[in-house]
Design brief:
This protein has about 425 residues and is an alpha/beta fold. The protein is about 45% helix and about 20% strand. It contains 20 helices and nine strands. The protein has a nine-stranded mixed β-sheet, with helices on both faces.
């Protein structure tokens, strides 16, 4: 009987919110500016219940993610939703976001902290959206299994696609501080609105954590930066970075394979008058840039583009980048890169940063400098060095510590600042 009642509630919510989606579409058809003018950022457009996973099923499904590492024993059954909500692009226009939502079934009335998690790089085209990961053919990160593991331990977990996916008017805003930060904060707003006893069968506690891996770390720290001005209503309790790439200029130096996607995105966002791929990339890469970034997801382009900047960049840009002379030599490019770096606004939020000692996408000395700057900006930071861990392993190697840290912060204990 309880399951039947819960199913009826879920159906009622889906129908009610889907009707809202139809209304939004109708308004957009009536007036091209209606969508941008009226829906509030973070407003839920639709929520579709997709199914559920028992604790045992989550444990079994997590084996490919955790590999030979200990698999944490799950506590709760988790309901899976496809959530759509409104957000705001870097230029102030409205956009609809698709997210995967994982809601644990806790004892009645027990509140759950909320975790918003940003994906690592998957690509720019719609086929590369994190929600479309097919682990049988293209295992980009076993992200669903990762999110289920957090939800199975008692966190309402939302995993949004970045702004631009499934949107014919714009590509993904890759490493756009504003677009990524808005998506993360609006995901929190949407979940706080949806996850009530009446709507989802679970109640969200007023404790929100933003987290992310690689690019997602950039997004999480962008959310921390933007919260005071964009979403002061979101009760952020802390921020977590797993191999976070927060300084975009440093990423161009240390991870050139990702640079073509950043350069392409910024040329679209700011125009070629500010960021011209032909001035930054060698002709063999620049001439087919748009076609290349649209056809390859991360598992392909990491092999396609060189990891040596000297083989990717023009000699002039390469020299300026590695000699730290971008502001003098490429001032508009330097300004765009600086504008989109994240984390060091002085937001003061507690943070935990995970860094693998064998990470060759984000180098440990660079992460050391970021953590030192984050502490100097007023945040208590727990810095966890994972000996022997590579970039793709930081999420699993840091999983147990991330859960313990969130539980500590959610309990009201003083946030630690230790490590390194």
């Amino acid at each position: 009987m309880r399951r039947m009642i819960a199913a009826i509630k879920h159906l009622a919510v889906t129908v009610r919110i889907t009707l809202l989606a139809a209304l939004v579409i109708a308004l957009a058809l009536i007036s091209p500016t209606a969508l941008a003018a009226h829906p509030r950022s973070g407003e839920v457009v639709s929520a579709e219940l997709l199914g559920s996973r028992t604790a045992l099923e989550i444990d079994e499904g997590g084996k490919p993610l955790f590999e030979t590492r200990p698999i944490p024993l799950m506590k709760y059954t988790v309901d899976l939703y496809r959530l759509r909500y409104m957000s705001t692009d870097f230029d102030g226009s409205s956009a609809m976001i698709t997210a995967q939502l994982f809601v644990p079934r806790l004892p009645s009335g027990e509140p759950c902290p909320v975790l918003v998690f940003g994906s690592g790089t998957t690509g720019i085209s719609d086929a590369c959206a994190p929600s479309r990961e097919n682990t049988a053919t293209h295992p980009w990160g076993y992200y669903k299994e990762n999110m289920l593991a957090y939800a199975g331990l008692g966190f309402i977990t939302v995993f949004p696609d970045y702004l631009g996916f499934d949107d014919p008017t714009r590509p993904q805003r890759y490493f756009s501080k504003l677009a990524e930060g808005h998506v993360m904060l609006d995901a929190a707003r949407a979940v706080l609105a949806f996850a009530s006893e009446e709507a989802a069968g679970a109640r969200a506690a007023p404790k929100v954590f933003v987290a992310g891996y690689s690019q997602g770390g950039h997004a999480a720290f962008a959310a921390a930066d933007l919260r005071p001005s964009y979403a002061p209503d979101v009760p952020l309790a802390g921020v977590m970075g797993f191999g976070a790439t927060c300084d975009v200029t440093t990423l161009l130096k240390e991870g050139p394979a990702y640079a073509s996607y950043i350069i392409y995105t910024y040329s679209v966002m700011y125009g070629t008058g500010q960021v011209d791929p032909a001035e930054l990339l060698q002709e063999k890469w620049a001439r087919s840039l748009a076609a290349d970034v649209e056809r390859m997801c991360v598992d392909e382009f990491q092999l396609y583009y060189p990891s040596d900047g000297a083989k990717l960049y023009t000699p002039h840009f390469y020299q300026a980048l590695y000699e730290n002379r971008l502001p003098e030599t490429f001032p508009t490019v330097a300004a765009c890169l600086a504008e989109n770096s994240s984390g060091l606004s002085g937001h003061g939020l507690p943070a935990i940063v995970f860094q693998g000692t064998e990470d060759f996408v984000v180098r440990t000395p660079s992460q050391d400098r970021f953590v030192a700057a984050l502490r100097n900006a007023g945040s208590p930071v727990r810095y966890v060095l994972l000996n022997g861990s590579r970039h793709k392993q930081v999420r699993t190697d840091g999983f147990a510590a991330s859960v313990a840290w969130m539980e500590l912060i959610a309990s009201g204990a003083p946030p630690p600042s230790d490590g390194r």
